[in-house]
């Protein structure tokens, strides 16, 4: 464990070797599932790089110098953070080059170009790197191509496939793996998500190495909705209109925030696909036909992709359930991708 961060010791060692060899890159892209510590790692790495007492190569900030104290307080003048603003889906142009009336006099691209105030480096962390627009990415392009001396830029995203080519081609990718189940279990207990160690163990085993997913899956209503959905599917008589209304009510119960409702829909899609995957394995073991189940899994995964591409939620919900209902007719099984 490094700086209270579990599960990423190999990446720590990779950075130590890079620093010892004097080959620290100017731009890194951290990718991996949500909720595994990428942003926290970026922040602790920045703190170590900015520490004015200990050599950066050992990645062990002293915790006492002015730089460390300011980093811990979130007020370090050489540590810059850009993330999606409240109520917005994408990173905005103004966050990189300033508002119209102060173009190139404010924003990350301006701030990272200034001389460091406390040490030899300035470090910028760009969270939510999955949510660049072509315009905001282009604002960053010149800074990535000609980084200021001493600048280190760390972008935090979930996967290479969600990055724009202008970003991906100019960053060194660092892949973070899901956390081990025991690490997630300890974090669940420490965070008070559940109190019982056995329940924490079960939740960790479902979380796919992500504390963020564990937080979402602690909702028992989500599992109950999945079970009702799958039970209807397995009955062979899926009532599409009624089920669509029921799922719609369940999703909307997540709250007024669109992101919260989309997240609940995404998790239901994921859980239904996973449960159908278990059914598929059982059918295969019994030597029974599984074309309809395979088509349904494919449609669930497609729906997740469409949701990530900002598809209309109500339309997607209806088409997803309608397609699943149609697969229960043997004549329609051959076409799992609806194209809708």
Automatic annotation (TrEMBL):
It is an enzyme of class 2 (transferase). GO terms for biological process: DNA-templated DNA replication. Coiled coil: none annotated. InterPro entries: DNA_Rep/Repair_Clamp_Loader (IPR050238), P-loop_NTPase (IPR027417). Its EC number is 2.7.7.7. It comes from the Bacteria. Keywords: Nucleotidyltransferase, Transferase. It holds the Pfam family DNA_pol3_delta2. GO terms for molecular function: DNA-directed DNA polymerase activity. PANTHER family: DNA POLYMERASE III SUBUNIT DELTA, REPLICATION FACTOR C / DNA POLYMERASE III GAMMA-TAU SUBUNIT. This is DNA polymerase III subunit tau.
